[in-house]
Design goal:
Elements: H1 2-6, H2 11-24, H3 28-41, H4 46-58, H5 62-75, H6 80-92, H7 96-109, H8 114-126, H9 130-139, H10 147-160, H11 164-169
């Protein structure tokens, strides 16, 4: 908050406070005010649009979130986290094919983006493409940042397929 005393027009200060309100305080109204203020200062901030799209999705304003996420992506098309959020918003708009296609682009931008791999695997689960989901979960199983999610994903998929013994291997 001291940064506001120094410079109330700092977009970074508004984004940072918005992120604290969003992720820590769960003060979504306060977060929205911060993101809107940041966008008033710089309407071309891809980062602000990205976070605002995440918030809108959390609040189930999926159509508005999609417009905001698409704008963020237009402003910075080579930014992997923004591409990831666009995919996430497609997913929450029940546009699974678009979500998978976008997540593939995210992975092209950053092949080591574990969250993107994990997310894409769950998109395949949602579209009942279990073989593809198993392939991805198995691929990220050795990544320390993704291992727990891969284990739970594999357990879920094998249970869904009726292979309970195999499913239990991943929860022990």
């Amino acid at each position: 908050l001291k940064s506001f005393d120094i410079d109330n027009t700092s977009i970074d200060a508004h984004i940072s406070l918005g992120m604290v309100k969003y992720f820590i305080d769960w003060d979504w109204e306060g977060a929205e005010k911060c993101f809107i203020k940041a966008l008033e200062i710089n309407p071309n901030s891809a980062e602000t649009h990205q976070y605002y799209a995440m918030l809108l999705t959390t609040l189930c304003y999926h159509k508005k979130a999609l417009k905001v996420a698409e704008l963020a992506h237009q402003l910075d098309p080579l930014n992997a986290p923004i591409s990831y959020i666009l995919s996430y918003v497609f997913f929450n708009n029940n546009q699974i094919e678009n979500a998978i296609a976008q997540q593939k682009k995210t992975i092209e931008l950053d092949p080591d983006f574990g969250d993107a791999w994990n997310s894409m695997a769950w998109m395949y689960v949602r579209s009942n493409e279990f073989d593809k989901a198993i392939e991805i979960f198995s691929k990220i199983l050795n990544d320390p940042t993704s291992m727990m999610r891969a284990n739970s994903g594999l357990s879920y998929v094998y249970a869904k397929l009726g292979q309970t013994d195999r499913a239990q291997e991943f929860i022990k």
